[in-house]
Design goal:
By secondary structure, this protein is α/β, with parallel strands linked by helices. It has three helices and five strands. It has a five-stranded mixed sheet with strand order 2-1-3-4-5, with helices on both faces.
């Protein structure tokens, strides 16, 4: 699997970005996926999800078939309405991109998608060393 990570900044939770990144990088390492990019959405949550520059970049990368899995910490991390998330999932589904929520260790898509069970993994907070910039171990 090739993956990209998407993080959402949140001024109400300054440590949240670190937790999102740690969860995503832990999943990449444990599942042995190849990370092709990390994007951060610094826009306020009042901006529609599909209009956020980082999300537009994700969609453009999906159109170019640069990855097949989008990793987010948790759907709640995107700070959007459920229908906005569903719209993003629909767009990504059209490009056969899967979305994985790393903090809970499960796929985000609902209905119609069937995956083999993930291996039993420890998602403990202290089991990852953050890589140097651009290097995933």
């Amino acid at each position: 699997m090739t993956a990209q990570c998407l993080y959402q900044s949140n001024t109400a939770d300054l440590a949240g970005m670190g937790r999102q990144r740690k969860a995503c990088l832990r999943a990449v390492r444990k599942l042995q996926w190849r990370l092709t990019g990390e994007l951060t959405s610094d826009t306020p949550p009042t901006m529609p999800l599909l209009m956020r520059p980082a999300v537009k970049q994700i969609i453009a990368s999906a159109e170019r078939e640069e990855f097949n899995t989008l990793l987010i910490g948790d759907p709640a991390d995107l700070l959007c309405e459920p229908q906005e998330l569903e719209a993003l999932l629909s767009v990504l589904n059209a490009h056969d991109i899967h979305v994985f929520g790393c903090q809970r260790g499960r796929w985000v898509e609902q209905n119609g998608r069937h995956f083999s069970p993930l291996p039993s993994l420890s998602w403990a907070e202290d089991d990852i060393l953050l890589p140097r910039e651009g290097v995933i171990s």
